[in-house]
Amino acid sequence: MAESACLSTMHEWESPDYEPSLPVSEKSNPLTRDIDRASANCIVRMLQACDAQMFQEETGATYQRLLSKQVVETLMEVAKKVEHILKDPQDSVVVLSGCGTSGRLAFLITSTFNRALRELNQSSIYSYIIAGGDRALLSSQEAPEDDPKQGMLSLKKVCEGKKQVLFIGISCGLSAPFVVGQLDLCLQHPEVYTPVLVGFNPTHQARDESIPGCTFTFRSVAQRMQELTKSQKAFLINPAVGPEAISGSSRMKGGSATKILLEVILSAAHAATFTNTPITYKGILQHMRAYKKTLDVTFAQKEGISALLEAAGKSLQCGRRVCYLGWGSLATLGLIDASECIPTFGADYEDVRGFINGGYRELNNYEGPLGPDFCIAHEDFLHLVLPFLNDQDIVLLIYTHSDDVSEVAKLARRVREKTSNLHAVYHRVDGDTAAAVQQEDINKLCLSSLKITWSSPASGILAHLQWELSTKLLLNTVSTGAHVLKGKIYQNYMIDVQVTNSKLYCRATRLLQKLSGCPESQCEEALLKTIYRVDKLTADITSSDIATHTRTARNRTKVVPLALVCLLTGCSLMEAETHLEQQPIVREAVEACLS
Ligand code: F1P
């Protein structure tokens, strides 16, 4: 009985009657309705169940899934296009592009596969584009996401002089104007560009709002591409992976599924080119299943993850910090996870921070060091952060046994001088005892050590990709859960979201409608009042466009929570501010206002 109830909750979102006006990527997940009141243990279980939805089989005609026949076949076709370029790379490039998390993953994946090419003495063929440039790798630069022209120009720039371009545009919600500007450019020049769109909604759910200065919408471009898939002049990879655990938080499943799909494509193309392994349906499916296993292996450590989540939640609750000290590409995932907490939860820059051994040299981004606002090396941590830490700040070491474990031990000792709240997560291959002694030292210094053991992998690169996904899942769980415990989530909505681009502006208005029951016009009015900090809207404000509103909102905090309190109680902005100061947990503040 309990099991069938649970099963129906797993699939409830697939019903055509479930939140019909919203695309899958924006729906609220029935599995996490009460996540804001759950214990650390329960939060981990809920997030695991949501992640598991990625690999559910197709149940009917409603949605294609990750393992659906058509998706696997498209992955094969795109892999063959990449193989073609790998075999004749001159004047060709494969570009991966996206906004926010999607752009960060484009960076991570291109870095991995260019490195693999370098190791084979081959020239690099992959380039990444992220809306807002490299600063967006480490911070939210959401305004450029709304600019299709900037997208198009940045694509033209990386493709200068190229005769053949495979363009992979990633937009989890099929919504970013920056990406659709690039796709439109590709469609205008089919002799050079072959476009691939990756996202997690069916095309009829792609965003259809008009884009200032454009004659197309995301939906119209996606539909044009759909037509071209028949002749393989364009490709669509858009399975549904179920609603995010925190509504709209596409950094979670959207990001994970992006990583899985693109790595499957590129790995298959590399194997076909360099080890004579043909691209087969079975091979692609097998690789996908290895990622499913990654979820199982990671969440087998539920208790350890819950303990970390609880400890991180405690630090955030008392206004202290969470620091990730990572090595290699796992550190990059730490940097990414930390940077996303700012726009997702309205967190402070100092709340969750990531650091990488070797700093920018190791990150190897196009623009190199990004200046004093973005200090990311372990040395920066030692100089700028460590002196101010105490036992309430949590430090998490993230590494694998193929990193220099004696370096990890050395850093652990330094950290231990300032805080006992030190934890470790590390990956090792079963039977590998190389770093056993240093690991023992580290274990003694840490309050908890989470050891994730993997059976000997078929190839070195696959092992690394699995460790990365595992780290992503774990860090997303810890940082999301810690912010839930801090009271940043209302039911399963990120109510304290920054309203910094048009997608987020629309989401904020919709959220206010849902939670207050007031009509759309009244909700938008309340939102504008809190953005401009006025109790009465002026003609100047109401005649401005969304770009002006979102620019102004950049410097504001608690926009949506304040608007909600105003709507529900009819109080002034100042009174709403006082309510929220007294009760920072949004759900409780709202309930206190109503009682
Ligand atoms: C891009 C994105 C997200 C971010 C936020 C704003 O979304 O930057 O990564 O978390 O929601 O939008 P998408 O184009 O991949 O849907």
TrEMBL record:
Q: Which SUPFAM superfamilies match?
A: SIS domain (SSF53697)
Q: Which UniProt keywords apply?
A: Carbohydrate metabolism
Look up the coiled coil feature and give its residue ranges.
none
> For this UniProt entry, what's an example GO CC term?
cytosol
Q: Tell me one GO molecular function of this protein.
A: fructose-6-phosphate binding
InterPro entries xref list: GKRP_SIS_2, Glucokinase_regulatory_CS, MURQ/GCKR, SIS_dom, SIS_dom_sf
Positions of region (Disordered) = 1-29
Pfam families assigned? GKRP-like_C (PF20741), GKRP_SIS_2 (PF22198), GKRP_SIS_N (PF22645)
Q: Report the residue ranges that make up the SIS domain in this protein.
A: 82-275, 312-488
Which biological process terms from the Gene Ontology are attached to this UniProt entry? Answer: carbohydrate derivative metabolic process; glucose homeostasis; response to fructose
By what name is this protein known? SIS domain-containing protein
Where does this protein come from, organism-wise? Perca flavescens
